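Re: the request from the purification team.
They wanted to know what the chain is likely to look like in 3D before they choose a buffer screen. I agreed to run a prediction and write the result into the notebook, where they can find it.
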Amino acid sequence: MTLASSPHSATNLQQTIDSDHVGFDAKRLARIRPHFARYVDDGRLAGWHIVVTRYGQVALSETYGVRDLPSGAPVETDTLWRIYSMTKAVTSVAAMMLYEEGHFELTDEISRWLPEFADLRVYAKGSMQAPVTVPATEPIRVWHLLTHTSGLTYGFLQESVVDGLYRAAGFDLEPERDLDLAAACAEWARLPLLFQPGTKWGYGVSTDVLGRLVEVISGQTLDEFFAERILRPLKMTDTRWWVDEASTPRAATLYGAHPQTGKAVPMPQLGAHAFTAPTMLAGGHGLISTAADYHRFTQMLLREGELDGVRLLGPHTLRFMTRNHLPGGADLDTFSAGGFAETTMEGIGFGLGFAVIENPVPSKTLSSVGQYYWGGLASTAFWVDPVEQLTAMLFTQLVPSSRWPLRPQLRQLVYQALID
């Protein structure tokens, strides 16, 4: 079966085909709703929206629960979600669009455009009060940013001395400093790297720096580039960097898990950042979107760079991005420096902006070789399976994403329903 053209508007997302007609057993696929409904019914989640497609057709689009517990406002197809690190996939596409235009090679040193990243230091030993560093033996190159092998990290990980130095500099889960992206990059460049570039995998601000690279090379701010080159062409009219007053009623409330009961409790301080225009356009976590909008982005990926006659990337580029680029074909389990990531590690490689399943057996989760994906801090997730011509998305708002096994369970329930 060939991929259908996308008939969906940017503000609506309805099931477009009987799931039996695209290789699903409808009764088996229907197991998704009651399974995830239990998370809402027992208070662990406020609500969710799950979408599954095959061959470009929506086989399942289900909402359940509320977007805000006190008001009881239901989750709807136009609910606005903080997608956090699912922004990384958009930024990676933006960078690779510039790559296709010949602006850089993946092996280029980023200091060519961002001179603050010349003469880097790498943490060797010592405490936060007296860290010992050594010179970087390898510069950060563009492919290091795309694969999270740069040595840059996140302050909120709380796994290393370098993470602590990030927090001390004001870079934590909640930003303590009102810096724009250029100023933030200058600060990160002054901090030591967690490891020598290219020698390990470590989750961090690499994609934010990649966003700054997009700005410098294109001559546009990241929001301008996204709007002109990606969002408007794909008709992603609801994707934005912050929620204005007119759209506030559609925004889902951000929740955390109560440490004793596990029930969803509001996170008003962190959640409030979505309602003011950001100073820093964070290419690693800045966007807010709807299921309908991100559906269009995943369909572009599934169609190898094209949707509804608009081509952002060439097929060869997309295939190249979704191969494992870790040195020696390593998986994250053997190559990671440790710490939190929006993925399991065993049998998982990493491409240019996406995790890639090399072998689903070690993680003991039913899935498909070649599937690529990522997720966000508030438990949102997406994947694209080019072999089965399948996509799936999960939207909810629970921090952290590791609290409940939502993503492996969704994979389990989607693939058990696939019968052709």
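For the purification team: The first strand starts at residue 47 and ends at 54.
Please add any questions underneath this entry.
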